[in-house]
Amino acid sequence: MSIRILLVEDEAPIRMFTKINLENEGFTILEADTGESGIAIARAEHPDIVILDLMLPGISGYEVCETLRTEMPHIGIIMLTAKSQEIDRILGLEKGTDDYMVKPFNPHELALRVRSLIRRLRLDPGDEEPKTANSPQMIQDGPFVLDQYARVFYKNGEEIDLTPTELAMVRMFISRPGKALSREEILHQIWGEDNHGETKIVDVNVRRIRSKIEDNPAKPAYLETVWGVGYRWKKNDA
Ligand code: CA
User: What sign for the dihedral angle of Cα 101, 102, 103, 107?
Assistant: First the structure.
């Protein structure tokens, strides 16, 4: 089935241009020109991915993102930001966007970012990940269980709502307990080879994951920092 993308963009020329390019890539596109109508369409149509402009008339892309994340934690969100200021991108990531594009953008690059996000939505292994013949359905570690087929993560038997990016990162970590992974490795593995090269996106997502899985996010016991390198999933007794 074709991936359905909701495009929330108030500038008609950009919306048309983006729609045509993504349709040429084989995606089905739904359109909205305000945040309010974007939320309504997302509720009614359940798209796989939302491409969300930050600067919208009425409620902003941030507010749309917050609402979508609360109601649909598993939806993919890519934010379009007109400003190149880092602060906008970081704030968007902190609100749970999976990726971002800075305007003006190359439509080919947007399509690459969409495909990378689809791999996370499906929990497809990245190119660099060693492909094992029979990857287990359940990965268990300490109080955690990851059901790879259902794409659900549990702590002490309770489901934890993770974004597609957070879930892909947790899968990457929990499959390699005890191994220190550099920010660059994580970036390439999760966002793809053709990523922006900005490792801050890794740190923001680690922070978000910790806030959801750690008993005390300020003193992480599961997803540890490896100073000067990156991060490591601490080995836990089953
Ligand atoms: Ca706009």
Answer: negative
